[in-house]
Amino acid sequence: MNKVTISGYTFYYKDNMVHFYDERKQQILFVSIIGTDENGINAYDGANIVVDISKKNIEFQPLWNTNVEVKDANTYILKHKF
Predict the structure, then answer these.
(1) b vs e for 36-49, b when ≥16 Cβ sit within 10 Å of the residue's Cβ?
(2) Band of the pLDDT at 47, cuts 50, 70, 90?
């Protein structure tokens, strides 16, 4: 599993996923890589989940295909439902 810590929150996620952090909006987008072309450019699936850390409490905007397992107040594991 991959691991990223942003603003004191730690997220574990599958090896076939990547994250993009929008510092201005304080949101993290997690997406799945579905392939890589002959030039090494990744192709991405739709969004798996958006995490909003701009508010006092963390807010998950899960889509239909992601579960969030809470390990403690600041640690989360993102898993595909299927």
Answers:
(1) eeeeeeeeeeebbb
(2) confident
